[in-house]
Amino acid sequence: MKGESIFHKYDLLLPSKFDGGYLILSLYKKIRDEEIGQYFTAKEITDILQKIAYDYGEGSVRQWSKIKGPLFHYYIRNHPDEPWKYYLTDYAKNVIELMFNKLNNPYREHPLRKSFEDSFSIRIGEINNIFELERKFGRIFIQGPKSVVTDHLEALEDELKIAYEQLNEILRNEELRDAASMVRNFTVIFGKFGDRALDITNAILSKDKFLRDLQFIVDDFYASAVDGNILDEAEKLQRRANWEQAREIYLDITVFFNSIDQKIDLIRRQIKNASNKLTELQEQFSARAHLRLMLKKFFHLALDSAHFAGDQIGLNENFPLKKLVHEKTRILYPKHYEFGLKVENRLIPQHEDNAYEKLERERIEKEIRRQQIIYDWSEKVKRNIKDGINIEISELMETVTLAEGDISLAYQVAANVISFASSDTDIEVEISQKLITLSNHNFSLWKTKVSKT
């Protein structure tokens, strides 16, 4: 029903030029330039209609009484205390400002990378819970930054379209006989494409960094949701709900950036086509130079072969004459036609290999147990660090190796702990240039201490 109402009222949303469109634009500009007041009279409207008819060569002036009916739906209202005065609605002002922004987009001279960094950036420690993430990048709150980036790309497309038309105009212009002037004009236009290509590359790097940072935050919510030490069922459900909400935010932003990538890909194609125009310009110069050379040779040959015959100029017998170019027609006949019957593929039945299945299951279960052991040790050490317990990496590896009998497990646990400590500003990693060798293992490392600041 809403869709049908849009079609029924479409002619009320956008008035035609001489039935109120030019009038709304003129009123807006005169109010902005303070030529008339915020509240204007019917006489001021009539004067504007007369000027519009004169400027655009209309035979007759539109009467205000005949066109005001449709405009009163969305564009003009009566003053509540002074009914003989009128004012523009906010809808009318928004439509006109939208038109001005389309014609003179404010983001045309603004770097694309800065738009990404201003709209999509995550500082260290900025997001600590799901409420802060929703407030910063939720679907409702992110509409403004999305609109900024979209408007910026639209301005970039318009700018490159204009530059592309200028390049074509330079190539088609027959008045630019001088190669130097053509190259000079071409270089001025082509410089815009080079600047935009560098700006797009930097913007993509900024976008990719933001997505990685956001993925780390979503991973933290997932780790909190699968924490096996939480016994309260309500707390488990809340953490899982937080992770699902964070994942929805990430997917929504990812879909938006996918659409941005498609638009950037189209812009890059325009830039690539512009570079092909440079090759076209080079070929054009080569063709002109070749034509001049051939004409020069032709004139020299004509002068060398010319002689006077009576009162006219004639040509010697060695001067080449025009001949009819022809080529013998060749008809090729196919020697062989392939009419062989198609051979159907035969399916070879596959038999179950129970021994192979058993080995693969054991290998997968072993790897799952291994990952679970690494996760349990890592989480235990992280909690100890947060509780203020200092951790020596060499002692940690000795303990894990002794308990699990595998030094590779100890190495993975130590790597997880170092990675966790490096990403947390409240945890300090102190490394001394003192080589420590693990007992009963050919494995050495620097003395490393992890503590809470």
TrEMBL record:
Keyword Coiled coil applies: yes
Source taxon at top rank: Bacteria
Record-given protein name: DUF3375 family protein
Entry keywords, A to Z: Coiled coil
Coiled-coil region list: 257-284
Protein source organism: Pedobacter sp. KACC 23697
Keyword Coiled coil part of the UniProt annotation: yes
